[in-house]
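Narrative summary of target 7.
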Amino acid sequence: MQVSSYPNIFNTSVSDQVIQRINKLKPETAALWGKMSVDQMLAHCNVPYEMAFTNKHPEPNFILGFILKTFVKDTVVGTKPYKKHSQTAPAFVIKGSRNFENEKVRLISYIKQAQQLGEKHFDGKKSNSFGNLNADEWNTMFYKHIDHHLQQFGA
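Modeled conformation, tokenized:
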């Protein structure tokens, strides 16, 4: 298994640090770059967890699944950081305003749930978009994504 260059989100101290960063956000926190508002960003950051824990997002069809695994997977689960202003998948596009507190509570709850389930739960777990991922790939996907957006909002 490849060792991530990212902190281990399944570790309590790391997940607690991420939650502390989320708690620094306010409804009026402005983005340093990009088009999302802070409430949209929180809703956006909930999507990977929704995909891992719910049936809200259908699996892609065979062709889209092939494209995602072949061309997108390494960007999402690889160690290279996201670029500012990166394009996002349609399921991650949040239109309209969202309830800041609700989205924040949901995100913190998802982070705690992933941490409590731990690496073993995720090792080999199927991702909607990328097939089976190892624990390190799940960690990279979860941590890299939220870290990118918390930096976007100065947290």
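The chain has a mean pLDDT of 91.
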